[in-house]
Write a structure and sequence with these properties.
By secondary structure, the protein is α/β, with parallel strands linked by helices. It is built from 9 helices and 7 strands. Strands 3-2-1-4-5-7-6 form a 7-stranded mixed sheet, sandwiched between helices. The longest helix is centred in the last third of the chain and has 16 residues.
Length: 230
């Protein structure tokens, strides 16, 4: 059964708001995404296994949950960039302790033009955000630029082309049609192999990826490293 127009309109408004949440709806979406993406984020961080003293940048930091979790693992500087001023403020509030310790920097900005110096971070993460980058390769090149030689990249997504061949109930209800609609709206929907190739093309090495096809609409985490000499 297709969605009726009265139901479809608010869903479309929420989908539009996901790329740059603002105002009360943006705050509500930020809190919802913190809950929804908690397990994906924790999975990504386990695979990444960042060094204890790492300085970290989270691209598309959203409500700040990923930085908060990384702040428990890493004692270095924490930084976030997000196109939404609403999300910048949510990140600051979610990471008050790091802010009080002068460990936190959060800025409004684009993944395609990061407001960060070259060779600034040991770790760069992008969780549930690459979909919205108008030019993913340019965003990945920016991540490479701000990483120190030997620094680590982790990109995690929960809607990919790696969803289970035998779909779960969630995937049967929301899967292929939702993914196709998102791709038609201009979101970057990729497989692990496609994203790994893209990451390699932008200059990273030691690339690997993990998938959980039956989680959400196909979990994916791509991990890579900036070469010692890039």
């Amino acid at each position: 059964m297709s969605l009726t127009a009265p139901l479809r309109r608010p869903l479309e408004r929420i989908e539009t708001s996901l790329s740059r949440p603002t105002g009360p709806l943006g705050i509500a979406i930020g809190h919802a995404m913190s809950l929804q993406h908690y397990t994906l984020t924790a999975w990504c961080h386990r695979l990444l296994d960042p060094p204890a003293g790492a300085s970290v940048l989270d691209i598309g930091c959203g409500s700040g949950n990923a930085l908060r979790l990384l702040g428990r693992r890493c004692s270095g500087r924490l930084a976030g960039v997000d196109p939404s001023s609403t999300m910048v403020e949510m990140t600051r509030r979610a990471n008050r302790s790091a802010d009080r310790q002068d460990r936190l920097t959060v800025q409004q900005g684009s993944a395609l033009d990061l407001p960060c110096a070259d060779d600034s971070f040991d770790v760069v993460t992008a969780i549930e955000t690459l979909y919205f980058w108008p030019d993913p390769r340019r965003g990945l090149r920016e991540a490479l630029r701000v990483l120190r030689p030997g620094g680590r990249l982790a990109v995690a997504l929960e809607m990919t082309r790696d969803a289970a061949e035998v779909p779960t109930l969630l995937q049967r209800v929301f899967g292929a049609k939702f993914t196709q609609r998102s791709a038609g709206a201009g979101l970057s929907i990729v497989s692990g192999a496609e994203l790994a190739e893209m990451v390699g093309d932008t200059g990273f090495d030691r690339i690997r990826f993990a998938v959980e096809p039956r989680r959400s609409l196909g979990w994916l985490c791509v991990l890579a490293r900036k070469p010692d000499r890039c």
